[in-house]
Amino acid sequence: MTSSLAARQGLLTRAGNRLSAILDEQAVLFATQEDSNEAKDIKELHGRIRTTKATLTVEVEKVEGALIKYSSTVDELPVGTPSKEEILKRAEANIDAAQEVLDRAHAALTKLLQLTMEEAAPIDATVKAAKRPEQAIKAKTTASKTVRPEKSKPAEDNK
After folding, report:
1. What spans are recorded as compositionally biased (Basic and acidic residues) (predicted)?
2. Full-model pTM
3. Which residue in 62, 66, 58 sits closest to 10, CA to CA?
4. What is the DSSP string of 11-32?
5. 78/131 Cα distance (integer angstroms)
6. How many Å apart are CA 33 and CA 50, to the nearest integer?
7. What is the pLDDT of residue 2?
8. Which domains are seen in the chain, by residue range?
9. Are 126 and 39 spatial neighbours (Cβ–Cβ below 8 Å)?
10. pLDDT tens-digit profile of 104-132?
11. How crowded is residue 115: how many other Cβ atoms within 10 Å of its Cβ?
């Protein structure tokens, strides 16, 4: 059972280290503020954000999966396992480390979502400015129309 635990620990450590490395590599992206209004720069930034979000999502799932398997293996240790208390302490430290990396990743994903939402506004403005005036007017009036409910008809008496 301890060899299985060691294997699970190795997988968890590698997955956590990979996720941590990605977070460190992309730290600049998480601190990005849009400085350029050039469509090319904005498009490139959006591409990096999409790629990073996808990569982080996949790696988070891998760490979470490895963490679940590792925790299950720890929970299944037999009662008479030698040095069980020491194993449990190390397992707790490993689980805490994995949780910290996952917390960083979730914070990064939240930041990327915020960047996506913030940066969508300049792109929308650029697209609207590029439209012909009549298209912009049509788009504006279409967006501002509200759907009005039909007037209710008086109920007929059941006679």
Report:
1. 147-159
2. 0.69
3. 66
4. HHHHHHHHHHHHHHHTHHHHT-
5. 69
6. 16
7. 67
8. 2-144 (1.10.132)
9. yes
10. 999 999 998 888 887 666 555 555 555 54
11. 22
